[in-house]
Design a protein that fits this description.
614 residues; alpha+beta; Butyryl-CoA Dehydrogenase, subunit A, domain 2; two-stranded antiparallel sheet; 58% helix; 11% strand
Length: 614
Amino acid sequence: MSTLVQSLIALALVWVFAYRRARMSTILVSVLVLLLAMTFYAGFAWLPWLLLLLVGFFYIATDLRMQLMTQPLYKFFRSLLPPMNRAEMEALEAGDVWWEVELFQGDPDWDELLNYPKPELTEAEQAFLDNETETLCGMLDDWQIVQIDKDMSPQAWQYMKDAGFLGMIIPKEYGGLGFSAIAHSSIVTKLATKSSSAAVTAMVPNSLGPAELLLKYGTDEQRQRYLPGLANGSEIPCFGLTSPEAGSDAGSIIDAGIVCKGEYNGKECLGLSLTWNKRYITLAPVATVLGLAFKMFDPDRLLGDEAELGITVALIPTDHPGVVHGNRHIPMGMAFMNGPTQGTDVFIPLDWIIGGPDYAGKGWQMLVDCLSEGRAISLPALSTAIAKVCYRLTGAYSRIRTQFNMPIGNFEGIEEALARIAGYAYQLEASRVMTAGAVDLHIKPSVVSAIAKYHMTENARKVVQDAMDVHGGRGLILGPSNYLAYAYMSVPIAITVEGANILTLNLIIFGQGAIRCHPFIFREMQAAQDSDSEAGLKEFDSLIFRHAGYCFSNFVRTLSLSLTFGIVARAPVRDATAKHYRQITRMSSSLALVSDISMMLLSGALKRKERLSS
């Protein structure tokens, strides 16, 4: 047997193992056994033996490998890392990765996905949806709320408080409902089909804000002080993050808290002198407690050696001296409460920091973690509600509205729009349940929630556009019977808040996703930034060669799946959907390969290549 034939047989074995993502030790031993067998039966072939010995030598000779190969690569990699400030690193590290890892890494484990438990409501949650939520919906007249009163009725406000809508996520021990994420999502969805203004009012206290931050980080004293009131509606929260200088780039806020001594309740104590200017803050005009994000400074070193402590979060009663609420905002004509809040040199005690003084400077990590969960519930719920309203009412309208002596639903152009509405509605509901289910599995899905937020709000925009096109003039004239106009007007709000879609698409989904979901890149970055360079080098050595094997495996898998049109990919089912699983696996493998190539060629410049990463 010739050297070429033996080399091709050995390559075929390596190819199969690479496709299966076998460990390097397994590949080397298998090739050794194969070459021994071929040498015994067919004679010696120098080329495959030479390659095996060369690879095997560098695999075993750790010190020589590190000196000749790893150290230069380590220095080169460190030079490629983009400069990142503290807020960017904290945002990158925040939250969890979930099943999206499988899609980014090129070999999705479909069984894991299919084995996740289906999110379901408890009996108490279903009863609340069928009764209290139904009752509140019956009290809502969106025309009256938006066009005439610019607010919910006092009766609706009071019922929302009394029934516990503002404390859905607060545990029962504090007087809340203690509902799951899927219940929170389902309730907001149902409310939003009747009034998006009412849905936002119920949604915000249960999303990123004082209650969630207190539950995760608050001291026992802070929880006892605020959570019962937040649960029963006697306290209404708002959270101030966005400012005129910092929108999507929330890490650049200039609102500041200076550590100093001051007087509170007639006693001198250590605290903060706060100055802030926030806008677009939902519930600010009616809030009794303000959650505030600011940068904390200690120029006199009263707390320690650091002068700049970083972003911090505090709770401030809105009747505290110096807290000012400005004129109310009217977002796209919607009636939910929204407005600015300001303060100048407002003194607060240090123990008003959420979590106490120990959490000074940890606010950004806290906020991004909580935002990951809230973003997986709130905006998916609103988007799904829009799709459900459009699906149900546009389909009905297309049957009763006639033109040219026949229902307009019989025209193929209308059928096309109805089909898109139905398809997106199905997809949105499935995504809503999936992302809320991730939160109930105690995942903080930073990347998944960004994917969901972007695509679900954009698809809701497509749905309502199609619905408006089908309705024609019927959808244009405002009045008590127009069930589409306010949904159409509210879509830009969902697209803008909790990370504007342009930012989410261009920076978060791929920029953060490719790094966090990659099996090696993020750990290589951490190794390269290790203050102990020797330890960092050893960790980098362990990672970089596994990374090389991962790249080779992705190349093998992508080429194999492309040449076979995905037929060789494994599907978890045998029905008609099997081909779709195979094609997603093929595309996933291509994504993993292209991502690695992009990061290798562009390195830190990828941070600025927004059109490519989106």
